[in-house]
Specification:
eight-stranded mixed β-sheet; 23% helix; globular
Amino acid sequence: MIAKINHVGIAVSSIEDALVLYADALGLTVGTFEVVEDQKTRTAIIPVGDSKIELLEATDSESPIARHIERRGEGLHHLAFEVDDIDDALKLLQEKGIRLIDEQPRKGVENSTIAFLHPKATGGVLLELVQG
């Protein structure tokens, strides 16, 4: 089911401030910037080998990222696994009784399809499935 770790999502107050570390100090290059309107989130995708870092910045105080930072501070937000068939993966997880946030896939960044598993079912870690 899982092909690889697709990316690590990191919640930040400011992408520009975070890039002082990731771009300037660590020498990584941003691949793309994208706004996810329905999640009120701006992202910066930074390729690292076969995986990526996804910096997540709220564009609105009602954004899930804004709420996350308010409750937990900046830092690790989620771990994303790449899957070959997200519909099959979700069906299998539902059959195994795994609690999902997204029972149906939705649009993600970089023309991907995504779905989140509930952290109460995953040892407190927000997991994302990514196809595409």
